[in-house]
Specification:
Blueprint: H1 4-8, E1 18-20, H2 28-35, E2 57-61, E3 65-71, E4 82-86, E5 90-97, H3 102-106, H4 114-123, E6 132-136, E7 139-143, E8 162-169, E9 180-184, E10 187-193, E11 204-205
Parallel strand pairs: 1-8
Antiparallel strand pairs: 2-3, 3-10, 4-5, 4-11, 5-8, 6-7, 9-10
Length: 209
């Protein structure tokens, strides 16, 4: 069953994870197409993540093709993006954005994490207890040895890290096997030819160099 916002609005305020592409002017046939969208019958729809966001896309159509452009900031490696067909009319695009690795980028200038320090101490034969109690006759006192913090203070966190996912069901059958995809400075561009063929098996689509 399609989400209520897609049944009522063709351009919801919040970008939905899945979009059923229909006629420019919604009508009763639009509602039927949305209700019968094969995406919602696919097992992948059952996988739900709380940290997923929907990348912004433009979709344009000509007599023979659909052209899609999607924004994937911070993603430069084409191997990190999954493009998969789900049946003859549905296309899934997914990736995961990792937090930027300070140590990998800045080397010795990056702060050491507690795990790094503990590893160095073990390698150097140093044993340290981060919290211990020392008892003496007549009284008890606690000695606390402060552990090393990660050394990083987050002052602002606006970037999204985690899953990015968007999927589309086209209003007609398309030749997803002939789909062409390229990465251009964080922009995923795809050319999808239309088709009158039968439903194709699901498979992963390779992004060109």
């Amino acid at each position: 069953m399609a989400p209520l916002d897609q049944l009522l609005y063709t351009q919801p305020v919040i970008r939905p994870v899945h979009v059923t592409l229909t006629e420019p002017h919604p009508n009763f046939r639009t509602l039927v197409r949305t209700l019968e969208d094969p995406y919602y019958k696919h097992n992948y729809f059952q996988v739900k993540r709380h940290d997923v966001i929907s990348p912004a896309f433009d979709v344009r159509e000509t007599d023979g093709f659909f052209f899609l452009e999607g924004e994937f900031p911070g993603v430069s490696n084409k191997e990190e993006i999954l493009i998969q067909q789900l049946g003859s009319r549905t296309l899934l695009v997914e990736t995961k954005v990792e937090r930027f690795d300070l140590e990998k980028e800045w080397g010795d200038f990056a702060p050491k994490t507690r795990q790094d320090i503990e590893k160095e101490e073990v390698e150097n034969g140093i044993e340290r207890s981060y919290s211990r109690r020392h008892k003496s006759i007549g009284h008890e006192h606690e000695l606390e040895m402060e552990g090393h913090e990660d050394g990083v203070t987050v002052r602002l966190a606006e970037r999204h890290t985690g899953y990015m996912q968007r999927s589309f069901t086209f209003p007609c059958a398309v030749e997803l096997g002939a789909l062409r995809a390229k990465m251009r400075a964080g922009l995923l561009v795809m050319m999808v030819p239309k088709s009158n063929g039968t439903e194709e098996p699901s498979k992963r689509i390779v992004i060109e160099d």
